[in-house]
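FAQ: What does a multi-protein file look like?

Like this. Sequence, then tokens, then the next protein.
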Amino acid sequence: MKHMNSEVKEERTSNKKRIDLFLVPIVLIAAFLNLFKIWTDEYANAYYTAAVKSMLQSFHNFFYASFDPGGYVTIDKPPVVFWIQTISAKIFGFHGWSVILPQALAGIGSVLLLYVLVKRTFGVWAGRFAALAMALTPIVPAVSRTNNIDSMLVFTLLVATWMLFRAVRTAKFGWVLAAFAMIGVAFNMKMLQAYMVLPAFYVFYVVATKITWKKKIAFLTTATALMLAVSVSWAVVVDSTSADKRPYMGSSQTNSVLELAFGYNGINRLTGNTSVTGSSHKQPAQAQQQTASSETKQTSNSNAESSQSSNQSKSSSSKKMQAPGGGNQNGMFNTGNPGPFRLFQKGLSDQISWLLPFVIFSIVGLFAGVKFKGPYTTKQKESLFWLAWLLPVAVFFSIAGFFHQYYLIMLAPPIAAFAGAGAVALWSMYKQRNGWKSWLLPGGILTTAALQVYIMSPYVSSIGVAPIAGVEALGVILALVLAVRKERKNAVTNYLGVAAMVVLLAMPAYWAMTPIIYGGNSMLPAAGPDSSSGMGGPPSTATNSNQSGFNGMQPPGSSSGNSSSNNQMQPPSGSSNGGQMQMPGGSSNNGQMQPPSGSSNSGEMQMPGGSSNNSQMPNSSSSKSSSSKRKSGGMNAEVNKKLLNYLTKNNTGEKYLFATTDSTSAAPYIIETGKPVMAMGGFSGSDPILTVSKLKAMIKKGEVKYFYLSGMGKGGQSDVITWIKENSKEIPSSKWQSTSSSSQQGPSGNGTLYEITLK
């Protein structure tokens, strides 16, 4: 810290070859947060893990990213990340950890890349602080410990950033092309989300390069054309292939990759016109929330479903189950209410916003005295790049109708970069007593500590009062002492500066460890004391189910024909506590989540999809010490061995082991057996893939004869579901359903198995 008061100079070539010893512990911290105990996650995100299992079986499945080994439907994302995961599984064997490993390494790689990017211009201390801030940003390891795409996406975009910076330094057009082509590769990871950094790339290249405007326009136009070509290359190949020679494009309504890119994975994310329930009826997120209690689902009832609904109505007639992250959070999946201060709301602030006030003060310091017309220093140009990354992405998440908490990892690089660069800049201004600018450092420390106290305050029952009081006291004291000692230059002041940064990073570091301490959720990763719920956010005390993090979303595999449920999430049948799930801080058990009483899941929380999440909530000793395998994909039903034995024994050469409405029920069986299981309606059960005539033809060809239905036949599948029920033979549950799984959803529990044979 004592070197930060001097102007940062370009390091000599001999020094560049040396290993920065301060970087070593930072990398080790990142490695621990990203890698430790990933081997305990057996399924990871089962939807994606099933796809890897399928992609291992043939090049056809590999190229199209088929969800099932039969090549019936793809997953709802492009294939590049899953190609990498499949290669990893091929090398290390098919395991949960082997499909997570590429993302974990990408998380570590992002820390290193940020160090390199920031260090060159802002100095070694800035690079160290930036790398450490990136490693300790809670949502970064939370996502990197899963097989979700975003960690790899951010790493790829940082590689593109490194290429762009090199292009400016070397004045070589080839690096510009490489940078934009890399964004095209990122598009084939998560589609339009990759383009969120384009404003930064355009602004930086225009400002930083010393060439004529004519050349700038020509170069950027060419680079953009290459980016678009790379972006749509896979989509063009897939959409040009005859539909009967490839899988259906999952989560699209027209069997088109481009429609998926610009619809479901594009504009609909901004407008909120994306169904989280799998219903074909789509509406903005706010309208979905406000009308959740009256929205009806298009489905047909069976005798089994009626029985299930009857059981559920006994436990849900008085109160609805409070989804994790409930309380007064009105956004879907605990993402708050759209508005200018959304990133400071509960549920989002503890994932990404711990250092935002310090970043704001840093931006003021870094741009102080800058004239609009220039000239700009290298520091100012690169600061402009990070600002042009930060602001548009922050605006998107402030107004977007539908996204998940883990998407916020897109904000981590610019926040970490400003934290590192700003720490050095503000310290220099402070030590030089540079007028009003010298007050930016203590001001940033004080306001950041205040925000962190606000972020932690809803978690008093989980983490206790001491950490909150400690951050508040130390933040205020250090800020005041630095303000008082502003005229002094000695070692004590240097140590105070170091202590202030340690205080500001202490609680983000703890939050970053929560997926390890309490268990993570691989389908909806989030950090925090309730990280295993997949709904990171403060404990819920609300009783209005419309305010739950799920906004009335019913878990796949549950009955949706029960009008008394108002389409709210239902607890396991047999619950006697009114269907309300007790969250940490809202119960009398000192912060421990209580399962619905009378359920048979041994205190495990029922996740979306009816899975049994074995990761316990805060204050559970098993969550901190258990080393057993866990299935925390958030959508996983346990494999019913009795059902599997029945289907295997009675298979007479059919291609598909069985068919079901959606991916929730199919994924665990694909993972366990490697055999084709048909998700007739794709991920959510609403894709218009199958028609009655197509199904008849498949049955006549002997491709499928068993069907498991659990109430998810919505949207384009309702006619198919009706036909199955009218033309099938119901298999007695005693032949395939195990007694121990009767309270679970999916093929492990409630539902009906049908058999159809046509001549």
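And here is the next protein:
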Amino acid sequence: MIADKGGPAASAGHRRDIDGLRAVAVLAIVAYHAFPLWVPGGFVGVDVFFVISGFLITGIIARQRDEGRFSYLAFYLRRARRIVPAYVVVLAAIAALSCWLLLPNRLTWVGGPLAASGLFLTNIAFTTAYGYFTPGAQQNPLLHLWSLGVEEQFYLVWPLLLALLSLTAQRWVRLAAAAGLMILSLAAAQWLIGHNGSVWAFFLFPTRAWEFLAGGFLALAPRFAPRGPVSANAAGVVGLALIVGSVALLNEATPFPGLSAVPSCLGAALALWSGIGRNPAATALLRSAPAVGVGLVSYSLYLWHWPALIFGKEYAQRELRPLEIAALLALSAALAVTTWRFVEQPWRRRPAPRRGRALALTLSPLLVFVALGAPMYFTHGLPARLSPSARQAAEIEHTDINPRREECFTAGKPVAPNGCRYGAAADAKDYDVLVWGDSHADAATPGILDWAKMRGWSLREVALGGCPPLMDARAMAPKVGELKGCRASAGLVMREIAADPKLKLIVLAARWPLYDGDTPHYDAGNPPIRVLDARTPRDRVYPLDEALTRTLAAIAATGTKARVVVLGPVPELTFSPSSCVAMARHLHRAEWRCWDAPATLPLSRARPAEAAIARALAGAREVRTFSPSGRLCTETSCITVLRRRLLYFDDDHLSATGARMLVPGWLDAALSPPAPALALRSSGLRSPMR
């Protein structure tokens, strides 16, 4: 993302191959964000940028220090003029579009990072709130600015450190220090990855510093250059191959950015090294006019492409089609060229006789975004922007959920023994119905509770986020590691089942496809939970049918007389119906487009899990199951609205209203199935509000 020239190792003038290498980096990133299934490792383009930045910036600082003409004020002014003008334009566009288009929950997510972006601390904001590959982050139009935060922090620290290292007359000290710090930073990143600290390793400057230093090492070694065309061409070929290989072979589940980032960074360093004093044939493509052209606008293209994709998806309220994505990328390219021509270039060429005043004037607009982001966050998304009807739909995610969700649904904290009872005496330690599962179990609980109340039964809920109701299951989340509390809650449930002679019904409910291996594929917004078998010493994938069979056997071994129902997967939609309706009301569109969803993805995810459940129950015929997709979906569509009431509060969780309307019938069907014709006629589920 840097466009400076020169350095001790590249002082002969502007290197076109570096512009071409920037083009490779930015196109990899753009392709990954647009088509992640086709370019699964394109996120390494950021690492390539970091190596380029380290090479160029270190070269500038070291050369000017050696010549006795380095000025901190001039350096920071040049950095600010390079980065801030286009950055401010894009931030202003993001802020304006967010206030116009985003619903309150989304705008709340934008507020904190927007305020942080005014201080170039966006990477810190995402470290504390999200991981890069989590759904909340993947829907944020500011996510890509984390790399600008890391880069600015490099600019603050590295010049000061180089100043100290330049006090000695022995220039090899700088080289040794760069190598030592590079190894230390890489080791820290790898250690964090091995200790469930991948989010920190991904976003923080200390664990990314080694990538800048990989380029800085080259810049500090002016005599370390290719000795001939053979070595230069070999380095160019190997370097580009390493970058392309990383783009093709890595994916969001790869532990990153430790050792797995080494190939792409080494590839970038080799490509840079191959061009020191030479123009090898291996990198001729990088020096071509198209590559150089893309490289020149790479910074603006990087800034524009991600918000264009995010806002396009928000406006459509569905997954974008390939042609729509291509159109948004074309728009991003046009905006990038315009920004480069009319913002970047004029600002960089302006004279600055008073550097202090010029630096202050350049940086001062950033404070506006601190002031804008704070109210977005603290008002929970400026809900007064919306009409009352749009606001009502937008707030369903908070208003039409299990009324005791905050109390009963736990995420990352232990489950209280005998806690979260419904309809039981305060001092009672037993209950009639046990609901065990994850957030989908919590979402279904209002309906199960209504069913239980009709029989005068009490209920106990045990629901943990991301934890399947399975014995011996290690739930592993990408970039996080094993989710805490899953195995402990399973042990607690088994003890309670064994100790409760009053128990009549056990309901296992979960987002089963999430725990069914890696198939069907989950996109970046819905990363898979990898379930491992805790009984084996190695990281063996725990097949869902085997895990459920073992769990049902463990329940039977307690001696309980309770019946068991496995509530199958609720169809996972391609959009959030509540957000779709809210957006339709906000933009004065027809709501009927939100009343059903294409069935292809919901069924492709539900059916493998339903088959695994069926295999597990084949040997436990007293256990019953019900598959919601059979009632909610045809082969072409799945309903989202029934009798003018939204059945979901997001794209895969039942609303409390939906649970109360649907789940009692599902339990009746599971425990005493009616005749198929009667079930279809009485369900009313093919008559949504049209």
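Q: Is there any per-entry metadata?
A: Some entries carry free-text notes. For the entry above: The radius of gyration is 28 Å.
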